[in-house]
Every structure is written in C-alpha cells, then in structure tokens.
Write a structure and sequence with these properties.
Layout (H helix, E strand, L loop, with lengths): L15 H45 L1 E5 L2 E4 H11 L8 H24 L6 H11 L5 H24 L3 E12 L2 H12 L4 H8 L3 H5 L3 E6 L2 H6 L2 H9 L9 E21 L3 E9 L2 H12 L4 H8 L3 H4 L4 E6 H8 L1 H9 L9 E25 L2 H22 L2 E3 L3 H13 L3
Antiparallel strand pairs: 1-2, 1-9, 3-4, 3-8, 5-6, 5-8, 6-7
Helix pairs in contact: 2-3, 2-17, 3-5, 4-5, 5-16, 14-15
C-alpha cells in the first residue's frame, strides 16, 4: 500500500506592507523604551538630587575648625548623636552646643599632647572599642582616644604639676544672706553656740550646708574649686587658728535664697495681672529698695540697676500680663498670691524665695588648724589635677584658632536628624 505524502505548506514571504508595519511597531517600542528609560533616569535623578541636597551635601559642609583641622557636619552629627543618647529631648539644643565645645577640646588636647610627646596608639583604642562593643568609626575612635589621652595627661603630665603636699588650713565656714544676719550669727558663735547647728539654720550655700560647715583641710587653690570662692580662701589663710573672721562680703558667690518685690500695674477679671518685679539678694536690700520706691523712685530704673531676675531685668522688671500659675512658676506660691492681693500701683513687702539663686553674701570663716606642709588627701589631689587640666584647656582655647561654622540653619538640620532618629 503506497504511503501518503504529507502536504508541505510553503510559507509566503512577508509583503512589503507587512515589513513596513513591523518596522513601525519596533520603532514605537524602541521609542517607548527610550522615553521610559529617560523618565526613570529623571525620577531617580530627582530623588537622588533631593537626597543629596537634604543629606549628603550638608554632611560635607564645614562645621568646626581647630587650628588647621576641619570637622564636617557629618562628623558633628555623629558626635551629637552619641552625646545626646538617652537624654531628654528638652536638652538637645544645649547638647548641640556642648558638642561643639567637646570636639574643640578633644582636638586641642590631641594637638598639644602631640607636642608633649604624649599619645594614644591604635591598639589602645581598638582594645577599648572591643570592650565597649562600639563600632570602629572615626567619631568613636576620637571619643575613646580623647578619654584615654585625658587619663594619660593626668597621670604623666599633671601629676607632676600638682605637688603632693603643701600649705593647708582646716576650715569651718558658712555663707549668710546679708551683713545683719552675719553679725547676728557671729555674736551667737562668740557666746559658744555650735557652729554646725548654726550652719544648718542660717547658711545659704550648698557645699557648706552639706558639710555642716566643716570644709576640712584646704590647700591653696581648692576653695575656688569647692565653692567657687577665692575670697573664702583669702580669708582662711589670713586667720590664725581658733580665730573667727569678721563678716566678709563676696559679690560673686551664688547662694540659694532671694527676695522679690512686685508691683501690680493693672488687673483683668481677677484672672491675670500686669506686673513688674525685682529679685534682690537679701531682705535688707529688698527693704532698702522698697523704701526708695515709696519715696517716689521709678520701679523700672531700679529694676534695671539692682534686679537679679535676668528674664525681666532689661525690661525694667516688666512681666506683662501673667496668670496666677505663671507667677507661681516664676517665684513660688507666696509670690503669686501676693501679686493678686495687691492694690493697683502698690508694692509688696519683700517676699522670701528659698531655692532660687542670687549673687552676693557674707562669709563667716573659722580656722581650726594650720600646717605649712601637709600631704594633700587623695580625693583633693585628684580635684586639683582636674582643675589644672581644665585651666590648661582654657589656655589652649584662648590661644587657639577656633572657628564654629554651625549657624542656626545647620543646627536645625542636625537637631531634625537626631530627633528623627529617636522616633
């Protein structure tokens, strides 16, 4: 039986018209792909440009210059993040400023330590980074290196700068708010009253009150470190053992009490008052100022001259319109109640405010013993070395060429990124 042959279908070649149509389709596809690619490139470029403008570009801008060394905003931002870690958002603007100072101090310290041939090597930094499980980044290396360098300077340089012994006096001291109180307390001491008990009752300075007046053995230079008062030191070293000083005024010491005078200019519906205020350093000063006001002196003029309330001093004490709780936040409950009880144009009696800080007070100092060459106690010796290092850094800052390029715009940029990282 003969096999059947399959019929082979012969494909016809495309016509010119079909070829032209296909070519048109391919051209359209090619154009579409090209346009799509160009659009994608445009979008990516736009996004990339925005990212560069918002993130990359600002990081490369200069932030701080320490002599010939420049730190950019990227470095500053990372340091800011580290120093603000775990801190309240309310503190961020303060930490932003403090970060500048830390970067400057660390770099000045490194540069000067190089000249003293005191250095921290990479192995020491690597060891610390590993122990603390910190990333191997320049900012972290600089921070760790700065801490290690500070320790080396304290040990190898400043230990020799602070003698282990020297002239010392054993001191009792208290700070009184005014001369009248100081004279009253001095009379009690001469009658045999207990120094520590009187300190607890009358002293308005934190360190002396905490130590019940007994500051222990003080080497020359330490009184300023302990209580911020070189005058206390001058008095102590001028006294003979067993002697009590006369009341000595110290204009720069900070004490924990103040006295308000308040004048009400106008009232509104019993809910707010237009008030002027003054914060004075003592009851005696407040009474003197009140007498001047009653004699016709101008409140604003006296406030500009005498008030220690920095927020209102330059405005002549003017607080504007304030509510009772707002006044309470400024000066306490008694302060706000007194304001709302005053008649228009009246000036309050001096209103005592504990816990508010003012400048100026009177020292009473008693020297128990003296020693011309006594070994300095270890904790005091450490404080003296720290003070010597801080003074050294202050001198470097004064002599160095420091530039801070961080304006409000750059600071806001950094604050926004640190804040965002916390969300």
């Amino acid at each position: 039986m003969a096999k059947k042959h399959k019929k082979v279908e012969v494909k016809r070649p495309p016509t010119k018209r079909q070829l032209a149509k296909w070519q048109q389709q391919r051209r359209r596809q090619h154009i579409t792909l090209v346009l799509g690619g160009l659009f994608l490139i445009f979008v990516l470029s736009y996004v990339g440009y925005g990212y560069y403008t918002d993130e990359i570009g600002p990081r490369r801008q200069p932030a701080i210059k320490v002599n010939d060394t420049i730190f950019d905003m990227g470095y500053y931002l990372e340091a800011f993040r580290i120093y603000s870690h775990g801190q309240s958002p309310a503190w961020l603007p303060i930490i932003a400023n403090r970060t500048v100072g830390i970067i400057q101090e660390n770099e000045l310290m490194r540069q000067e330590a190089d000249r003293l041939d005191i250095k921290v090597n990479d192995k020491e930094i690597d060891k610390q980074l590993k122990q603390l499980n910190l990333p191997n980044k320049k900012v972290f290396r600089d921070i760790i290196g700065g801490r290690l360098l500070r320790d080396k300077l304290m040990k190898d340089y400043f230990s020799a700068k602070v003698p282990p012994s020297g002239e010392q006096v054993r001191v009792q001291a208290m700070l009184l708010e005014d001369k009248e109180v100081a004279e009253e307390v001095a009379a009690k001491l001469k009658q045999g009253d207990d120094f520590a008990s009187l300190v607890i009752e009358f002293s308005q300075e934190t360190q002396t009150r905490t130590k019940k007046g007994d500051l222990g053995w003080l080497p020359r230079g330490l009184a300023k470190i302990l209580v911020g008062s070189p005058i206390l030191e001058e008095v102590a070293f001028s006294l003979e053992p067993g002697k009590l000083s006369q009341p000595v005024f110290d204009a720069n010491i900070t004490k924990d009490v103040g006295y308000w005078l308040i004048k009400v200019v106008d009232k509104k519906d019993g809910e707010s008052v237009q008030a002027k205020v003054m914060l004075l350093g003592s009851k005696g000063e407040a009474e003197t100022i009140k007498a001047k006001l009653e004699a016709g002196a101008d409140f604003a003029t006296l406030a500009k001259e005498y008030s220690q309330h920095t927020e209102s001093k330059d405005r002549g004490g003017d607080l504007g319109w304030v509510k009772e709780d707002e006044l309470g936040a400024i000066g306490g409950v008694h302060f706000s109640k007194a304001a709302f009880a005053l008649e228009l144009g009246g000036v309050s009696e001096p209103i005592r405010a504990g816990g508010i800080q003012t400048k100026g007070g009177y020292w009473l100092v008693k020297v128990i013993e003296k020693d011309s060459n006594r070994p300095i106690e270890a904790d005091i010796l450490e404080k003296l070395r720290i003070q010597a290092l801080d003074d050294w850094l202050s001198e470097l800052k004064a002599k160095g060429k420091l530039e801070n390029y961080i304006d409000e715009k750059k600071k806001s940029w950094a604050l926004a990124r640190v804040t965002k990282g916390r969300q």
